[in-house]
Amino acid sequence: MTLPTTVAVVPLRGPGGKTRLEADLDADAREELVIALARRVLDALTSAPEVAGVVVVTTDPEHASAVVGDRDVEVLPQPSEVRGLNPAVALGRARARARGADRTLVVHADLPLLAAADVAALAVPVAAVVIAPDVAGTGTNALVLDERRADGFASCFGPGSRHLHEAEARRLDLDVLVVERRGTAHDLDTPADWDALTEPERAALTRSRPLRR
């Protein structure tokens, strides 16, 4: 049996972000954290044998290239007229299909616990749509689409995206599987997200700049 070709798409913003952590981390430390998170996600994807390639979509290719380093990852510039997360995802999916993807795995770049086993749990199922919700159960931290059946699927990342993605699947009469794992559920945006990590997990992300508190 020939396994489907899965290409991962990771939207990546330019410098800045994680402003809700500014009470705990200064600007430089927040930027180091953003980079550490993105590299954690890229390492999980590139080490997973189920993933044939990784595409980073970004408005700042120079910054993204520095984040990627020597990893086997394609950096895809997001044109200035293509604004926002969901258009970036559409751009990445188109590139994934051009690379021969049967399935596209869209993953946010701020999952501190993501590991290759989590990637496998997303990539192996054969459902047309695979959703990995956030801890609250309302957002979507990762999304797998079978491009052979879900090419008309419009991503709906943003508030309430889990239910919007389920509704989009129903609209297209596509089967859905929800995968719940700690590695995919935990993103890192707020002090509460930080507090949910163990001390060793925090230390792995801020080796050079400990939090102020």
Question: Overview of this structure, please?
Answer:
There is one protein chain. The chain has one domain: Alpha-Beta Complex (Spore Coat Polysaccharide Biosynthesis Protein SpsA, Chain A), CATH 3.90.550.10. The protein has eight helices and seven strands, in the order E-H-E-H-E-H-E-H-E-E-H-E-H-H-H. It has helices at residues 27-46, 61-68, 85-98, 116-123, 161-171, 182-185, 191-195, 199-205; strands at residues 6-12, 51-58, 74-77, 103-107, 129-133, 140-146, 176-178. A seven-stranded mixed sheet has the order 3-2-1-4-6-5-7, sandwiched between helices. The longest helix is centred in the N-terminal third of the chain and has 20 residues, at 27-46.
CATH class: Alpha Beta
How many structural domains are formed by the residues? 1
Determine Rg (CA atoms, Å): 16 Å
Task: Please identify the structural class as seen in this structure.
Answer: alpha/beta
Shape: globular
Topology:
Blueprint: E1 6-12, H1 27-46, E2 51-58, H2 61-68, E3 74-77, H3 85-98, E4 103-107, H4 116-123, E5 129-133, E6 140-146, H5 161-171, E7 176-178, H6 182-185, H7 191-195, H8 199-205
Helix pairs in contact: 1-4
Features:
7-stranded mixed sheet, 213 residues, alpha/beta, globular, Spore Coat Polysaccharide Biosynthesis Protein SpsA, Chain A, disordered C terminus
Offer a concise description of the structure.
With 213 residues, the protein is of the alpha/beta class. The protein has one domain: Spore Coat Polysaccharide Biosynthesis Protein SpsA, Chain A.
